[in-house]
Amino acid sequence: MILVAPAASHRRSRGSVTVETAAVLPALMVVLAAGLWAVAAVEAQLECVDAARAGARAASRGEALERVRGGVLAVAPAGARVVVTRSAEVARVEVSVSVRPRWGASLPSVTVHAAAMSATEPGVMSATGPGEE
């Protein structure tokens, strides 16, 4: 039986897969973190849309604006800013929040915003008190 020594090129490439994996792993972690951050931003956007829609519907039915604002804040993400306005024709609710990843406090935040409008029901403005216009 004759033993053949491995070629010199095979000896030089030994362990190269480990080195390549070690070099790519940090980049893979950055891509994964960016993906998770994007998912968190989309989740906050959807919560803002739901909160704005529910608030606009309540405001158009004639609910007190402070009560509408409280209901929107209950549905919106924590730290959301809410603006509720109502006229004789339309009720409008705007919700915005800054999203920052929980694991990266030093990273910049992304602000998501949602607005919803609904036609004010007939007779609502005559039943509202001062300051609710």
Blueprint of the fold:
Layout lengths: L7 H6 L2 H46 L3 H11 L5 E6 L3 E10 L10 E10 L4 H4 L6
Antiparallel strand pairs: 1-2, 2-3
Helix pairs in contact: 2-3
Outline of the structure:
By secondary structure, the chain is of the alpha+beta class.
Descriptive overview:
A three-stranded antiparallel beta sheet has the order 1-2-3, with helices on one face. With 133 residues, the protein is α+β, with helices and mostly antiparallel strands. It has one domain. α2 packs antiparallel against α3 (65-75). It has four helices and three strands. The model is unreliable at 129-133 (pLDDT under 50).
Summary keywords:
133 residues, alpha+beta, three-stranded antiparallel beta sheet, 4 helices, 3 strands, 50% helix, disordered C terminus
Low-confidence stretches: 129-133
**How are the strands of the biggest sheet laid out side by side?**
1-2-3
Q: What characterizes the major β-sheet?
A: 3 strands, antiparallel
Whole-number total of structural domains: 1
Task: Tally the beta strands.
Answer: 3
**Whole-number mean pLDDT:** 85
